[in-house]
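re the bet — no i am not wrong, look at it urself. input seq straight from the record:
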Amino acid sequence: MLARILHWICRLALGGLFIYAAYTKLKAPLLFEMAVSAYQLLPVWAVIKVAWLLPRLELVLGVVLIVGWGLRYTATFTALLLAAFLFAMTRSYLRGDAIDCACFGLGEAVSPITLARDTILFLLAVFLAVSAWRQARLRLATQSH
């Protein structure tokens, strides 16, 4: 029962955070594009594409997480996306780059606090993915009997 409650909390929390993150990026697209560029991971053409695509992807992921559609795949993709964010932030922090996280808009520098927060979000997504795959496996096992 506790696992089921945690499953729902993770879905709602991650979904809500992704929707909010998308909103902050869509509200100031040029500033977000500059923040993506500051990570120095992508060529200019890719920065433009990522800055356009990422907020829309986050919005869709947020809604789909809350609705629960295709949760095994959605939660797994969410965990992989958060791992990529965490990698980019950790790389920038270790290099000493003084850049904005751009996680929830601008004005928040990459720091141990943002790294800890994103690590927690990553772990929540991993828990959700594992939980969703486990539930699907249990459903298949009960249906085959």
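see?? The mean pLDDT is 93. told u. also Residues 2-139 form one domain. so pay up
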